[in-house]
Amino acid sequence: MAVAGRFFVRSFSLSSSTATSTLQDIASNNYKGTAKVVLKKGKTQLFREGSPMVYSGAVDRIIGRPPPKTGDVVLVADGTEKPIGWGLYNSVSMFCVRIMQLEEEAIGDPLCALNMEKLVERRIDEAVKLRKNLGFPSNNTNAYRLVNSEGDRLSGLIIDIFGDVAVVASSAAWVEKYKPQIEGCISRLDAVSNICWRPSTEILKEEGIDLSNLAEVHPSASPERVKVVENGISYIVSLEGQKTGFYADQRENRQFIHNISKGQRVLDMCCYTGGFALNAASGQATSVTGVDSSSPALELANQNVALNHLDTRKISFLKQDATLFMKDALSRNEFWDIVIMDPPKLAPRKKVLQSAAGMYRNLNSLAMQLTKRGGLLMTCSCSGAMTQSGKFLSVLQGAASMSGRKITVIRQAGAASDHPIDPAYPEGAYLTNILLRVL
């Protein structure tokens, strides 16, 4: 099995022969020996309609001598062996092929057809243009997502920009293989001077990638911390923190809290480095309390308060377990006008969804009891399994029943606009943010 750092990327030039009319022609003329993954009967339509992930259970047979290796470009064909598209193969992952182009697109774009180096460059360029159209970066915001995996048609690749640092989250074998090409594209961005490569080691193990020599494979000269600005609020981001270091997906939801906090008493549960709390304080809340169980996160939260010259008499952070804090607050008959509940991922997989639903219900029941009658609760789930199940609202209704409260939905949102989602791959939707009125 090939491992990260030992991949070799093929380079081809298109033949100058007559124009091709099918994807098979392109392969035969320019990429001889490309293996073919043949789908089972009845499975083709799903992928013709755009689903980018070919699960191993959808594959009937593989044609190729020698057989393809992880990271190789392969054709994806229907039961008659006629190609419908092409993608990147993995011999051990549950995702046998990540489709990159369907035949019609490949024929119309022969430069990128079956050429992953060119396609990576094209797709990252397109992602840059989209973010510019969305207003990123700007004087008020230089922390944003540049590439959002399937949403930018580069499944397994996430790139977040934090000031002059690009943080790459790799969760697919092909991303490790094409690391030089990806870094080359990033290095051409005017504002970026450092690249921090953060492979998702557990996921990559499932992809068949051995990262036991991680420090050698991914040496990093990037800083440990970087200062960024989002909607005019400054943050210190730890590049060794959770995920890529900063949750840009909640940007628009944080701005909403900023807009409604004037004169309000605000509680930010599971506050991490203070994103919602800082927005409430800068939005002229009368008092803001942030609670988290992580000392490093709260250290950054307090630094962010100082960085933004906020009044420490009106914003403070406490290190405590969320459930214990809320129970203690209830025992003191303490209530808030606005409560934010943004816990970590409680349902990483569908098999734990039922138990996670119970945890969400219990946390939100306590949060509702801490919300003044007529007040607002902004509650979140970053668990893809919960969001995709469509059950979060029913969980919240169960929490309301448990707490003896009535709720109405004021607003429903997901990740920020720089986190596009491919509707053919709904599994890419993971964040749910719901604003409730609690009566």
Automatic annotation (TrEMBL):
Location comes to:
Cytoplasm
Q: Which Gene3D superfamilies match?
A: PUA domain, RNA methyltransferase domain (HRMD) like, Vaccinia Virus protein VP39
List GO BP terms, alphabetically.
methylation; rRNA processing
Annotated SUPFAM superfamilies: PUA domain-like, S-adenosyl-L-methionine-dependent methyltransferases
For this protein, what is any one GO molecular function term?
Answer: RNA binding
Where mainly found? cytoplasm
Q: Which GO terms describe its cellular component?
A: cytoplasm
Q: Which UniProt keywords apply?
A: Cytoplasm, Methyltransferase, RNA-binding, rRNA processing, S-adenosyl-L-methionine, Transferase
The text of the family note is:
Belongs to the methyltransferase superfamily. RlmI family.
| Identification of the protein by name | PUA domain-containing protein
Q: Which organism is it from?
A: Heracleum sosnowskyi
